[in-house]
Design a protein that fits this description.
By secondary structure, the chain is an alpha/beta fold. It is 35% helix and 21% strand. The chain contains 6 helices and 11 strands. Helix 5 links the parallel strand 1 and strand 2. The longest helix is centred in the N-terminal third of the chain and has 20 residues.
Length: 199
């Protein structure tokens, strides 16, 4: 037990080191991504989407929160177009420091928002959180303990801390590490899906 508390204490003593480790990993991932062509990443994304569609979590969910990808992230646009008439799909709108999940109702309901990400317009319908069955989460890196490293803005950390639903991280295989630096408040994913496997 003493060991455990010491371990926890060392975590809080070195927030700068943790921060540095996360930043280094983000930079490594960014340069790794640049070594893949856009076409390759699209092909890998398609494989990941196929695996996602085969999971029970996806099949059984009638209301799913997901995201519109920026370049380099696992691409979700095809999945969104394919499913939005059959399932309720929610996309995040950045409001201050938080994400508001709004119902996607077709391409005309989107606009380019902060960071150039396609977002639902303000007049899209909000859905009560208790109706959400599943959230699909982007990340910069993941590990085999199902931890996630985000971009460092904390949008998803805040959202996931209030949203009590299964979480699926989608990731290229090269974004998957054996271990990534985590903090006590980081939420684990229920599943991580890459083009090669489901963890």
């Amino acid at each position: 037990k003493a060991n455990h508390s010491r371990h926890r204490r060392t975590k809080t003593i070195h927030p700068m080191e943790l921060h540095k480790a996360k930043q280094t990993l983000r930079e490594d991932m960014a340069s790794l991504k640049r070594s893949y062509t856009k076409t390759t990443l699209q092909d890998l994304s398609a494989k990941i989407m196929e695996r996602l569609e085969e999971t029970d979590l996806f099949r059984q969910a009638s209301c799913i929160a997901l995201y519109h990808a920026i370049p380099g992230e696992v691409q979700t646009a095809g999945l969104i177009e394919k499913w939005y008439r059959e399932k309720k799909l929610l996309l995040p709108l950045i409001k201050g420091n938080d994400l508001q999940l709004l119902l996607y109702s077709g391409k005309e309901s989107l606009k380019a928002g902060a960071f150039g990400i396609l977002e639902p317009t303000e007049d899209c319908m909000a859905v009560p959180e208790n109706e959400i069955d599943l959230i699909i989460v982007p990340g910069v890196a993941f590990d085999r303990q199902r931890n996630r490293l985000g971009r460092g803005k904390g949008f998803y950390d805040r959202l996931l801390s209030t949203l009590n639903v299964p979480k699926i991280g989608i990731s290229y295989d090269f974004q998957l590490k054996d271990q990534i630096p985590v903090e006590p408040f980081d939420r684990k994913m229920n599943l991580i899906i890459t083009e090669k496997e489901i963890i």
